[in-house]
Structures are given as structure tokens and as C-alpha cells.
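Go through this chain.

——
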Amino acid sequence: MKALVYTGPESISFQDVPDPEPVSDEVIVNVGSVGICGSDMHAYLGHDDRRPAPLILGHEAAGVVANGAGAGRRVVINPLVTCGRCRDCLGGRSNLCASREIISMPPRPGAFAEKIVVPERNLIDIPDNLDFTHAALAEPLATSWHAVMLADRHSARPTAEGRALVMGGGAVGLGAALALRALGCMDVSVAETNPLRRATALKAGFTNVVDPTDVDAINPGFADIIIDAVGIKPTRQAAVRAARPDGVIVHVGLGDGVDGFDARRLTLQEIAMVGAYTYTMNDFRATVAAMASGALGTLDWIEVRPLAEGPLAFADLLAGRTAAAKIVLHPPS
């Protein structure tokens, strides 16, 4: 089969690889679409030791089950493969399973390919009105949904009555803004450095879209809820400054892990800081339902390219040459 293989820093190749072989409870999925994630970009740059070359990346996928009793099912893939037996899995927090694996990390090849094998329990059916191109957004949008559900749980003010700030206009950031709006929050600001992505956020209906490098763009102490979908020192600093007393910051971005927290202000203003990692299966199902119902909008902020053009897509993302919050790749049919 054809696949996009990460071969070294800033090097990715469209090539022939052996077809995957399912074992035990796994099934083959013919990939219909797969999105490029920020974590794929980190690996592409050689910044992720968990994803050594050579490796098939990609974990935001939708397609058709090719074998077994469920052959023909239209599905999205939950890429988190968990044990199903530990306290976290049994308690509905499988995203925290200590034994979790994720496709696109060894030992599980990713979905930038014509086919992929995954456990059948990781498949979620998609309705006929949701095409594969948009269904590939379920994984990043489930991450957004999970972050917003955590914010809603920890916020001192009802989400629908609060002011929100989202740091980052990529798929997770824009998805968080859309999820906040779906929960009734009408005062949502989006901070994004890329002017093309700012235009995309405006097109999605968010009127207060700002460049966070402008020191006057974000008012201090105004936001009840802040979603940091970037996760670097400057966005953490901006988030803490922007939070109002008794506000909540949900840190979902994994840009880096150091500096940027003003612990004194967090303490004196009783600002909650919450980490958010991926999603639960319930988050994933709720996200698919919200997408299919139109609650998350038209989802027209994507760009579609053939899988064979993956190397150029990665280069364009690195150079900031696309306005799309997400590039979705289509393997050969």
C-alpha cells in the first residue's frame, strides 16, 4: 500500500510499505481521510522522541471497516488504545490510562496510509450525513470538546454567562471556540498570530479575533474561561494575565512544558489551572453527534489535498502558507 513515512527531521516521503496485518481484536480500516495534527508537525521537525523515524504518522482518521463482521461500517478512529481494565478506564477516564498507546507512535503505525489496523473497540460509527473529509475532524474536535467540558466543570460562572478567550486558531483552538459557542457562550475571543488563520476564525463567525503579539490586544483580567490550545511560555503568560479573579485556565496545548506561570497571581486571584489531555470515549461520541447536528458549524475551515502531496502540505504548514485550521489528506481510493 501507499503511505506517507516520516524519515527524519523535515523529511517525509510518499512510498510503498507492506499492508498492515490485524491481530486478535484488531480490524483493518480503509482510510478515507486523515488530518495533519500539531503533534505530527512536532515529529516532522524532529522534536518528539516518542516518534522516531522511520514511522507512519497520522492519527486523525476516518474510513470504512474492511474485514470482519463489521465490514462496510463508516467510522472514525479513536487513536487512544487503552487497557480497558485499570481504575481510570473503568471510571470513564480512559485518556489517563497508564498503559495507553496511540496510533502514530511505536508500536502502532499511523493513518497516513491507505490502510490501518486498530482494535474494533476504538471505532465510532458516523452518520451518513457526515462525509469522511469532515469526519476526520472528530479527533481534534474531541480534544477541544474535552477541554471545554473541563472548563465548564471548573468555572465559577456558568459558561453561557461568561467571557472566554481561546489562545490559538488551529483546529483545537478553533474547535474550542466553536464548542464554547455551542454551550451558549457568545463572548468568545480568539488570539492567533497567523493572519491567515485569523481570517479563518473571522469567517467562522468570531468577531473578536486578535494578534496576541500586540500588547494591547488582550485586556488584563477580563476572561472567565481561557483555553490555551498552544501551550508555550508566551501563551501561558498571556492566559494568566487575561484571567479574571476566580477564572479558570485549561491548558491543552503541548508546545512546551516550561515557564510562563505566574504562581503568585494564580494564588492571590484564586485562578484555577487545569490540564486537559485528549478525550474520553464519551467526549468522542458527543463530538461526532455535535458535528452531525451542525452544532459546531459548517466545518468549512479545512483544506483538502491528496496523500501524495503530504510532503508539500507539511512544508506549507511549517511556513505558515495556509489559512486552513486543518489540512486533511485523502489516500488513493
In short: The first helix runs from residue 38 to 44.
